[in-house]
Design brief:
Blueprint: H1 5-19, H2 36-41, E1 48-61, E2 64-71, E3 74-81, H3 82-85, H4 92-101, E4 107-116, E5 122-133, E6 143-145, E7 148-150, H5 156-161, H6 163-169, H7 171-193, E8 197-198, E9 204-205, E10 217-220, E11 225-229, H8 234-242, E12 247-255, E13 267-276, H9 280-299, E14 303-306, E15 309-312, E16 318-321, H10 322-330, H11 339-348, H12 359-370, E17 379-382, E18 404-409, E19 412-419, H13 424-440, H14 451-459, E20 464-470, H15 471-479, H16 506-515, E21 521-522, H17 523-530, H18 534-546, E22 550-555, E23 558-563
Parallel strand pairs: 3-5, 8-12, 16-17
Antiparallel strand pairs: 1-2, 1-4, 2-3, 4-5, 6-7, 9-11, 10-11, 12-13, 13-20, 14-15, 17-18, 18-19, 19-20, 21-23, 22-23
Helix pairs in contact: 6-7, 7-9, 7-15, 8-14, 11-12, 13-14, 16-18
Length: 564
């Protein structure tokens, strides 16, 4: 493991602390009785407090120093005075431990009294301090000078890979995740108050059902069967409706072995709810009340900003049928059209289609390309063609359509809901049709028929309405984040590229140090500066070029050496 100069120094300090009899990682409980927020909100001059956190600022001024301690609620100024900390003759705790052996990022515990500085800053005067955890790696702390921030930790890839550092040095990031939890709590309380029951269903499934998506596959050794990480929890929740629950919901971790982009992660969170004796019209009213409630709980208002758009989640929402939407934006009426007619229309609209696409997929492509992006304010798209909805009940007024809606916000779907199909014979036929599409090559058609689910339906499922909401996408809209990675603590990343470890001997290190001082250096000048014999010089320069840390280039002016 190659260490930077600062990391080496911190390890030396660690050794020195241990030599002084100070455990840099003590096991004892530290009796915290306050935090930075409580101190500021309930400030009382002279009050004794015990706090703990990271030391984020140190400003040493002789025998008195100021610093800032950061805990889970924010920052508080702390004042270190040598004579307050070291009451006797021995001043080493301040002069040695504090001034020389503590670093930014160290966790310390402090007992002290509250006072206000001459400039009005609420401060803790340190009476005692304890090292709780030594930081061996410097935090990427931004530097602020004259109101300008330098070296901000803003590179997205580094932030996502090192979320732990991101949360420490960019405290505003934490607020996104606080709001995420507020959203879950608000939604959960809304459902609970409505009398619905939170459940858990299997993540490892023998058949990946409930959606059209490519699953992650694994193998169970003891049972000697393939298992799949769930792509949706729909079929299991419906089994519970069959079993007699009036309303069930689940916040489910789903996994889809598909592409990644700004709105898709292979692991994501969905909420699905199923309520018996309801239909999709009821669910539309329920959903808009739910989302208005959640927006207010998260942001204090139903209005949210997303990029250049201002979105109002206040109910009610506009409703547009898919047929009317396509007709409005393309002039093409899908009603009664054959698969070939729809394919020809899509081609005429310059939409990429192929022979594997069935009727439903073709309509979906037309809607996605020409219509979807136009809906900024919350809008229900309703009454989808039957081919697009294999788990949805046939429309009561038109057998070619289904009782389905999707909620569009800023051109993206955030909710999908049905009057659920509860006819087991019709359901079997739809599954078999999907199987034919999959065999035809449609990678979004389901390849499995869940016979146990069909058996459950045969026992009888009451009329039911169900809805799924993409929680990650919803919190993106409520926190004005354009990327799903911003609302996931640990988004999936490509493997980190490790720099190859190159061993250099002492001569090579010395010559490399000379090269790195400038962009290019004359070969003869470099040889002279190295002070090496001819034999050692030849061996050293060949070693550096062979290890690809330096290269020699020939120009009209001669031979020059530079760092690779």
């Amino acid at each position: 493991m190659q260490l930077s100069e600062q990391e080496v120094v911190r390890r030396e300090k660690l050794t020195r602390l241990r030599e002084l009899g100070i455990n840099p990682y003590p096991a004892d409980l530290f009796p915290v009785d306050a935090n930075s927020k409580e101190i500021k909100n309930n400030f009382k001059e002279g009050k004794q407090v015990t706090i703990a956190g990271r030391l984020m600022v140190i400003n040493i001024q002789g025998k008195a120093s100021f610093g800032q301690l950061q805990d889970g609620e924010g920052r508080i100024q702390v004042y270190f005075n040598r004579d307050e900390i070291c009451l006797g003759e021995d001043k080493s705790l301040y002069n040695t431990v504090f001034k020389k052996l503590l670093d930014l990022g160290d966790f310390i515990g402090i007992t002290g009294t509250l006072f206000t500085t001459k400039v009005g800053e609420k401060t803790v005067m340190v009476k005692e301090f304890t090292l709780l955890s030594k930081s061996l790696k410097p935090l990427p702390i931004p530097k602020v000078k004259d109101g300008v921030t330098y070296d901000a930790f803003t590179d997205p890839e580094l932030r996502y890979r090192q979320r732990y550092a991101d949360l420490v040095v960019n405290p505003h990031v934490k607020e996104v995740f606080v709001k995420r939890t507020k959203l879950f709590n608000a939604m959960r309380s809304f459902f609970n108050e409505a009398g619905y029951f939170e459940v858990e269903t299997p993540i490892l499934q023998p058949i990946p059902g409930g959606a059209a998506a490519r699953p992650f596959a694994t193998h169970h050794n003891s049972l000697d069967i393939p298992l799949y990480m769930r792509i949706a929890n729909e079929l299991y929740l419906k089994r519970l409706i069959v079993g007699g629950f009036d309303g069930v919901y689940e916040f489910s971790k789903n996994f889809r072995n598909e592409g990644m982009d700004r709105t898709h992660n292979p692991e994501f969170t969905a909420m699905e709810i199923y309520v018996s004796y309801k239909d999709y019209n009821w669910m539309m009213e329920f959903a808009e009340q739910l989302l208005e409630h959640c927006a207010i709980a998260v942001n204090g208002t139903s209005v949210a900003t997303f990029g250049e758009h201002t979105i109002d989640f206040k109910a009610p929402y506009a409703r547009v049928t898919m047929t009317d939407s396509i007709k409005h934006f393309t002039g093409f009426d899908i009603t009664g059209k054959t698969e070939d007619e729809i394919r020809a229309a899509a081609i005429a609209m310059n939409i990429a289609v192929d022979e594997t696409m069935g009727k439903g997929k073709l309509i979906d492509e037309i809607f996605g390309e020409k219509c979807e992006g136009n809906y900024i304010q919350p809008t229900y798209i309703t009454d989808y063609p039957k081919e697009m909805s294999p788990l949805c009940k046939e429309h009561r007024d038109n057998p070619e359509l289904t009782e389905r809606f999707e909620l569009m916000v800023c051109g993206k779907e955030i909710a999908n809901a049905y009057s659920e199909l509860n006819d087991p014979i019709d359901q079997r036929e739809r599954f078999e049709h999907q199987l034919k599409l999959a065999q035809k090559g449609d990678d979004e058609a389901t390849e499995f028929i869940d016979h146990d689910f069909l058996r459950a339906l045969e026992y009888g499922m009451p009329p039911t309405s169900g809805m799924g909401i993409g929680m990650d996408r919803l919190i993106m809209f409520l926190t004005n984040n354009q990327s799903i990675q911003e609302v996931l603590f640990f988004p999936q990343m490509r493997p980190e590229q490790k720099a190859p470890s190159i061993e250099l001997n002492e001569e090579e290190k010395a010559v490399l140090a000379l090269i790195t001082k400038g962009e290019k250096i004359d070969l003869i000048v470099l040889k002279t500066q190295s002070g090496l014999s001819n034999k050692k010089w030849d061996k050293t320069i060949k070693g550096l070029t062979k290890k690809e840390v330096a290269k020699v280039t020939k120009t009209e002016d001669g031979l020059f050496v530079e760092v690779v």
